[in-house]
């Protein structure tokens, strides 16, 4: 389905290391323009195949922020050229798809298949035992990355064909050459799942749980699956030097992500076992870190992982803070702040949270603002609210930036932060706060950068996946084969946020009596905890929920709060719960079937 430069005979590999760790693995820097044949490189030249493998890493869709929230009820953008804004307002087509991952992921899979075909031909090190360990590790990485890219292909392009069958994408497990048949049909969704799980099993078998150095006297900690190897041989192939690369822990987390997708209403025909599988897959990840203890407490800065200045500053290459399972490293910059700080802080205010999202944050006592017991006052809407509201969203009167500048978003405000005042002003009455480091200075006279990183997978994501699946499989308080329930997870997450600390969260206590009420609460918590991280766009679709709720805002004038019911309409048709196969691919390959409703 995807041929690199029309075949591997002319393969251009420009691998830029976006991962942490491994900086000193390749000398000189990874930049290969080599022919892939037996005479092109020496068996001892490991740079070429490793550079190909790194292309798989570089194509991970979560390497950067998508902010596809702009195509949901959670956010709008003041940038009229924003691709997701255009998608949300009726311009989403099979040949204009900002969410498209077809070319990117199939290119990555081609590189990974090349790696799997070449890895055993390479002499990585002279020690034959260590050499075998290196080959084993790299094959494990390639299998894991191939599964991850296939997961993203399913998330983005799986759907019902015109005949009603749930289809995935073509399954490619070997290198495509110029002589191969590219006109391949889409495999069934189920067959794609089987391939992902098979690849993850292969990765898990070959990879250590984590990369770490085993010290002298602790040789018994070397996993038995690697046979009789010395401490030096093990550390050389699986030591802390390789932190940041794919691991067995990551393979388990990707399995949990995939299983949740497979169990979701849009992809599941009512098979309850899939919910059990998803719950158990998520539990397998959480149990590696103590079950519920895998959800870092507020004291451990589990909520503010993106702005924990000391923690981030002290992170070693490839190391993860308690909240993170896997991350990349953006290094020192101010890109997010430049895009999203309010105008008075020299930012462009691009991502504007909606009133819809603001209303989803409960009161401090745990009740939704629509509940009569909440104590919500629409004339004083930000008082006694869930603390996460002010952590994640910059509301009128809140402070931001290095000088704790008060931000005025009122309709009659006198600064450019005011509602709709200039091009970079908010369209909803709110600015983004989450993900941004307030110690970044954008003032041209004293600009400063700070260190950032982008998570691929967080423990909170996996915990919420467990809660969702466990509630469907076992009910709110059931545990199945595990030791904690959906209720237990949501209680831990809400208490970390500061909800229900003084009143034992009576709304949560009442919700545990009903699977349906708990389902809504779990979805609400997922919306809040993972906001602006690229989940809402996919969650609404896999849940078969309404996609056309207008984005709301607020106009504040003379202390009066007026809800703006339709800052921006959402124009989606029913079939758009599934993304399209690219139109260009449909034109080229007659065997490819388009998802129902897309032209």
Automatic annotation (TrEMBL):
InterPro entries: SusD-like_N, SusD_RagB_dom, TPR-like_helical_dom_sf. One of its GO terms (cellular component) is cell outer membrane. Its main location: membrane. It is found in: Cell outer membrane. Residues 66-213 form the SusD-like N-terminal domain. The keyword DNA-binding does not apply. The keyword Signal applies. PROSITE patterns: PROKAR_LIPOPROTEIN. This is RagB/SusD family nutrient uptake outer membrane protein. The lineage of its organism: Bacteria, Pseudomonadati, Bacteroidota, Cytophagia, Cytophagales.
